[in-house]
Amino acid sequence: MEPESPHLRGCLVVFEGIDGTGKSTQIALLAKHLRACGVDVITDCEPTHGPWGMRVRRAARAGERLGIDEEIECLLMDRREHVRNVIEPALAAGKWVLLDRYYMSMMAYQGAGGANVEEIREMNEEFATVPDLALWLDLPPEVALHRVADRGLGRDAFENEAFLAACADIYGSLEMPWWHRVDADDSVQEVQARIRRIVREELQI
Q: How many CB atoms lie within 10 A of CB 187?
């Protein structure tokens, strides 16, 4: 009888937070660390660069926003395709998926725009894989906006302090067993150390 593999299914680790909190940097560092530990890792983001996700991205980059109902529809369609075509196949193959934004972003951003946060969660969890771990990188909006400005890329339609503060309030109100706050107001190295501690404690690696 062959021994059971401890990695029959991979893990979904989601990074959340307002823009400027360092999600992309921290994902890259954690991916490098996990690969050194022998883990097969893929990294990805939402909204994706598929047709539905790009509708939201293009509007935001133009300094505009779609209507709230259209935003929700596009994001749900984008996520359905992403879960079906990328996330679930990778997990089934034993890979870890590190994801920059998921449906908690929708709860925060579209919730701050007036949508019902719990209804958004319910709509998503009808089809979307629930994360094994979600890491909320918490940073004051004014600090996050300074970091965005330092990148020299300009702000999108979601990036003003009052709106981001409303998003942060929603993030701070979430209570799920796999949801963990990470203080992101520190050096890249210290934030990464905090992330690795949580990953080690929660996912035993």
A: 8
